[in-house]
Write a structure and sequence with these properties.
With 237 residues, the protein is of the alpha/beta class. Helix content is 54%, strand content 14%. The chain has two domains: 189 residues, Rossmann fold (3-Layer(aba) Sandwich); 41 residues. The chain contains eight helices and seven strands; from the N terminus they run E-H-E-H-E-H-E-H-E-H-E-H-E-H-H. Helix 2 links the parallel strand 2 and strand 3. About 2% of the residues have low confidence.
Length: 237
């Protein structure tokens, strides 16, 4: 399978616990070894910083999308002087343009632990899947130390109360670690790449089968009518 464009959301806080940073480094190492492009918020601290530093150290590829008001010396330094490190500066009076730039080329989306900004990005992506935008990228979270258990509880309650359009498992996957997250993403991307050809062929076959049945039925009816007419003619003689 060709390399994926993996969009990753997560904390940019310098106070992010080490266990979350470790998960980010694991994900970054895997992405670099696989040759995937990691698209993220370009942070130099927190989960984002750990992810980007790990990918850079392993010679991987990152497209960091940062709003102009947050670009600083640390981010400039992280994205300067290494092949494969691309910094995209978004502008505007809010983060809408930045969010579109993050998600527009993504084959899949992975969320690591983060705060309200991460949750906003995650829920928007999951919502698109939940309400039927099938072109939206598959979404999963890396549930480090049960960080996203609360989200799972909320979704289960909403599903039980009949609020959701789909079961939670159909639009948001909870992975135990980075390896499981990427394996799930790869499987979903592969599934999305198959139906366009196979489904088209199946529909063509089904249409041909229907037309053949109609033709065969017509032949049989015509033969029966001809036999009946022949018998009628014989009896009249």
């Amino acid at each position: 399978m060709p390399p994926l464009n993996v969009c990753v959301y997560g904390s940019s806080s310098s106070r992010t616990p080490e266990r979350y940073l470790a998960a980010a480094r694991d994900l970054g190492g895997l992405l670099a070894r696989r040759g995937d492009l990691c698209i993220n918020g370009a942070g130099a601290n927190g989960v984002m910083g750990a992810l980007n530093s790990a990918i850079r150290a392993a010679g991987g590829r990152v497209r960091g999308v940062c709003h102009e008001r947050f670009v600083d010396g640390a981010i400039d330094a992280l994205f300067t002087g290494a092949a494969g490190m691309e910094l995209v500066v978004a502008r505007g009076t809010d983060l809408s343009a930045r969010k579109r730039a993050l998600a527009c080329d993504a084959d899949c989306i992975v969320a690591l632990p983060g705060g309200p900004g991460t949750w906003d990005e995650l829920w928007e992506a999951a919502a698109l899947r939940q309400i039927g935008f099938e072109s939206a990228a598959p979404v999963c979270v890396v549930n480090v130390d049960g960080y996203y258990d609360g989200f799972g509880t909320m979704l289960a309650r909403a599903h039980a109360d009949g609020i959701l359009h789909k079961p939670p498992s159909e639009f948001l996957f909870f992975a135990r670690d980075a390896a499981e997250a990427l394996a799930w993403c790869e499987a979903r991307v592969r599934e999305r790449s198959v139906p366009s050809s196979i489904v088209g062929e199946w529909r063509g076959f089904a249409r041909l089968r229907t037309e053949w049945r109609g033709f065969a039925f017509g032949v049989i009816v015509g033969a029966l009518l001809a036999m009946r007419a022949s018998r009628s003619a014989s009896s009249s003689r």
